[in-house]
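Inputs:
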Amino acid sequence: MTARETNRPPLAHEVRIIDTTLRDGSHAMSHRFTETQVRDTVRALDSAGLEWIEVSHGDGVGGSSFNYGFSGTDEMTLIAAAREEARQARIAVLLVPGIGTVDDLKKAHDAGAEMVRVATHCTEADVSPQHFGAARDLGMETAGFLMMAHRTPAENLAKQARIMVDAGCQAVYVTDSAGALLMHEATERFQALVAEVGEDAWVGYHGHQNLSLGVANSVLAYENGVRYIDGSLCALGAGSGNSPTEVLAAVFDRLGIHTGLDAGALLDAAEEVVRPYLTRWPKMDRNAIVQGWAGVYSSFLLHAERAGERYKVPAHEILRRCGELGYVGGQEDMIIDVAIQLAAEREQGS
Amino acid sequence: MTAAIVGPGNIGTDLLAKLKRSRRIEVAYVVGVVESDGLARARAEGVAASAEGVDWLLQQDPLPQLVFESTSAKAHIANAPRYAEAGIQAIDLTPAHLGPMVCPPVNGAAHLGSPNVSMITCGGQATIPIVAAVSRVVDVPYAEIVASVASRGAGPGTRANIDEFTQTTAKAVEEVGGARRGKAVIILNPVEPPMIMRDTVFCAIPADADRTAITASVHEMIAAVQEYVPGYALRAEPQFDDPQPGWDGNARVAVFLEVKGNGDYLPPYAGNLDIMTAAAARIGELIATAKLEVRA
């Protein structure tokens, strides 16, 4: 067996859909998922055929904080509960180096996580090898997120993907954190990554619906060789949410592409399990569209709304300014700073 | 007091520029392990410089009294016992943290006799003064710092072991800053032109804390840091928020900082590196002053 073959996990179906309702959805839930909600959601996803279910604080393990929001229930408790409920599905976690650490990863592994998705800004992949190394030592499957993938050209994104793959990453994602990638922009990135690392690792796509392109880009992704695709039930995720898992299942079913998912069961799960507990149903409102339009990290949404209320400035103006200043994932503190500056500008202007 | 700089990279070269202005410290030696621009620069300044490493340094007569180490944690762990054996005090700019952690305006005078002191991390030097400014007024059950650094200002050492940054800084937020529990986050941002270093400090404080006193204490601390980092500034007045769900009944103060470097050798946006070299130079000054006072 060559190193090449060992690095790419075998796929059970033509495409591997990974559900992130319980991780990206954590943003929309202000990181306050209850154990019951997690158990119910995992049971529904598991019986609908999902192989992998991501569970953790929205900003990854160790994300519970003033800056990103404190977890209502300890994420390790939620991971362990998810592990207990899953009969065939396995549990994945997110880790953002600089926020979470290898210690957090070990705790998640002890709680039952079997895959880690290590996320860096799209130009900063060289902060990830430490965490990929640790994950492989723990025997975990690995994936890498190149976040805010619209912020660097396809060719450079592919070079960053290479850094992750050489560090032990088995699937590198074009992670459209801002939901900003237009269809041709997404396509050129899929092609560049498949060309650079496709022999050694899978390529993935993680979409957001801010410009309504998550599902369309997922189809393009598949056509261009992408084999890991993310979704969330009811789109539950940051910004206007992720590509809805139930829609992905229905679309791929119509395309005749085998996902191993039961689309009907997922529709039931979205409608009967997730919708009743939603505190907000992610939608394409002004703030979220601005995020896709101005290329702003989707997780900024609720923070901008809160800062807008606190400092009496419109959230969409805060978000637009964050886009102009080029803030990246993790810089949620800058939202408050921007709100203070905007409030001061308004005062001077009046 | 004679000193040596071990590790003539960006940090070592910037440190040399700063120490050149010192009246109490004379950099006699600069040491690397390969010929480099840093060594050439030191020689051009009239400093004896060698690529023969610490072996060479320890053969010099006189030996330096003080060594500033800006290599890597691994190199410092190997070198530290040799300095100690030769009776040379070490100021450690790597994340090795073998000795007590020091931050000039907080506990700068506390470990002047220690054979080895740790300069913590750049984010620690930028934020711990503020945690301490709050914790000297009220109980701080929890403090969290977020350091945003320009991508170009983060070297390969930081990148290869970013956990070392978050863990060491969090520990120092507790041990030096005075918070009961600490957390640290670092974010690298590649935007062009490069962003000036930014730091945010969040402290949990009692709901009935004296907010005026906290604000005054923060302003005093800013002035104290400005003595050695003139570009250290508040972006806005400290921001107070009443208790919210998930905050364990605590209120919160948030302090937003900008750290603009002095531009000695490193570009001004790299305030993260500047505050590290400036703090190390400051500790060196304090050690040298203490030595002179003992003699007098």
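Chain B touches chain A at residues 144, 146, 148, 151, 156, 159-163, 165-167, 183, 185-191, 195, 198, 200, 202, 204, 235-236, 239, 241, 246-247, 252, 254, 256 (CB under 8 Å). Flag for discussion at group meeting.
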